[in-house]
User: Fold this.
Amino acid sequence: MKAKDLTTSLNLPPVDPLPEGIQKYFSACQDKLGLVPNVLKAHSFNIDKLNAFTGLYNELMLANSNLSKLEREMIAVVVSSINRCFYCLTAHGAAVRELSGDPILGEKLVMNFRTAHLDSRCRAMLEFAEKVTIESHKIDETDRQDLRDVGFNDADIWDITNIIAFFNMSNRVASALNMKPNDDYHSKDR
Assistant:
């Protein structure tokens, strides 16, 4: 693999050949998304690390939940905005545009989610995401109750918190390793 083909600033080429299950997973990504996300390619130097990452991501972002896929992507964008993670803002901003059908919403979430037209449920969820990201040590029962007051149950609060934590971790990895988003994300659903 040439340096210009790397998805990060590290020289960690993918396992070659990729195991059959990973090849199928990448093919499914290609079919569904029109691309294999670079974050997956970056992890493919170590199949155990890739499986751990995708397992947690798929559970948080794709599994059954009272949170809609759009709400989960909105959390990803707001957390990534606070952390200034170019990779996740690009990839998950595209997902917000696609799921909402509203390219302006994605941009407002990136710049300042408070300027977006959000219902009280989404606003409370994103305010919680902001506080957990900036000062998680100050979260108390009042913050959790604010979520309950707009209709979230305790299982939802668990999901919201884990999505916030996952993107705080991913943002730091992506930024520290200079992970590059797929070029196709920039033009999706604009």
Q: What stands out?
A: The chain has a mean pLDDT of 94. The domain at 69-187 is CATH 1.20.1290.10 (AhpD-like). The two ends are 32 Å apart (CA to CA). DSSP finds nine helices and no strands in the chain.
